[in-house]
Amino acid sequence: MGRTVTQASESIRRFFSKELSLFDTGVEAEFGDRFLTLSTCSYQVEDGRFVVVAKEVEPGDQFLQIRD
Predict the structure, then answer these.
(1) What pTM was computed for the model?
(2) Of 27, 30, 43, 60, which is the most buried if we count CB atoms within 10 A?
């Protein structure tokens, strides 16, 4: 049996939770958004992964720019 839109939306919310984020750009993830995900090894924990997720920005989206 397939997942419902509600179940998929909850999975997205958990995956894109900001609890583990290193940066907060103010961008909110919603079901139906488009993302680019990059993943690599992280050696801080056993079998760890470091993931960078970018949301496609659309006209009118509000976000904070990250600067060094």
Answers:
(1) 0.56
(2) 27
Cα separation of 68 and 66, whole Å?
Answer: 7
> 10 in helix, strand or coil?
helix
User: Rounded to whole angstroms, how far apart are CA atoms 39 and 11?
Assistant: 18
Instruction: Tell me which residue of 31, 29, 38, 32 sits closest to 61, measured CA to CA.
Output: 29
pLDDT digits (tens, 9 = 90+) for 20-29: 778 777 777 7
Counting beta carbons within 10 angstroms of the beta carbon of residue 3, is it exposed (0 to 12), middle (13 to 18) or buried (19 or more)?
exposed
Q: Which residues have a Cβ under 8 Å from the Cβ of 36 and sit 6 or more positions away?
A: 53, 54, 56
d(CA 29, CA 55): 8
In angstroms, what CA-CA distances link 9 with 6, 29, 38, 59, 62?
5, 10, 21, 23, 21
